[in-house]
Design goal:
There is one protein chain. The protein is an alpha/beta fold. It has two domains: 37 residues; 149 residues, no CATH class. Helix content is 38%, strand content 12%. A hairpin with a 2-residue loop joins strand 4 and strand 5. The longest helix has 22 residues. The protein is extended and about 55 Å long. The two termini are 40 Å apart.
């Protein structure tokens, strides 16, 4: 049997198993399974909007997980590279408590840095599905060295300000059998 035929048979077999498993589930089970793989921040937990109006979100298709808050007269717009989404919802909430005039009026995006830069180059316009909007950032949150390079290129305005730091950790196999004690040892493994 040719390699192509073996691969085609395997793919067809896997597809059949998945189809049978899906058919055995109820529609509610399939929806729960689909929702379980979607990001946890999709449910509005990271939005500081106080008046949400009609809730029309049908996961997993009508979800804009990287856009947070309201575009209706935002008083502060943040473009944050995607790695900050874990903490940004809590930071925005805390900022709103410390500065009540901004509460409910912060919009932020958590896209990869290259996409945020393309959006800025497009005058702040972005399209997701059938929706297009324009919003320009007041603050661009990204890694310091990359931000300094963007200032040098004239793509961002100075100054670059450190707003957060993190400690890096090296993960090793249980018991650390290679006796990794630092970055030099980790590179050698």
């Amino acid at each position: 049997m040719s390699r192509w035929l073996v691969r085609a048979t395997l793919v067809a077999g896997l597809w059949a198993v998945q189809a049978l498993a899906a058919a055995a589930q109820s529609p509610a089970d399939r929806l729960r399974a689909a929702e379980a793989i979607d990001p946890p921040w999709q449910h509005g937990d990271s939005s500081d909007v106080t008046e949400r109006g009609l809730e029309f979100t049908v996961p997993p298709v009508d979800v804009l997980v990287d856009f947070h808050g309201s575009l209706d007269n935002p008083q502060l717009v943040l473009f944050a590279t995607g790695n900050y989404f874990f903490a940004l919802g809590q930071a925005v909430e805390a900022f709103g408590h410390a500065h009540p005039r901004y509460r409910g009026h912060i919009f932020y995006e958590t896209l990869p840095p290259g996409l945020l830069l393309k959006q800025m180059e497009a005058g702040g316009t972005v399209t997701s599905g059938n929706m297009t909007w324009t919003v320009k950032p007041d603050v661009y949150l990204a890694e310091r060295a990359a931000s300094e390079d963007l200032v040098q290129q004239g793509r961002l305005a100075a100054p670059v300000v450190t707003f957060a730091t993190n400690d890096l950790a090296i993960m090793v196999r249980a018991g650390n059998p290679a006796r990794v004690a630092g970055l030099a040892e980790a590179k050698a493994v």
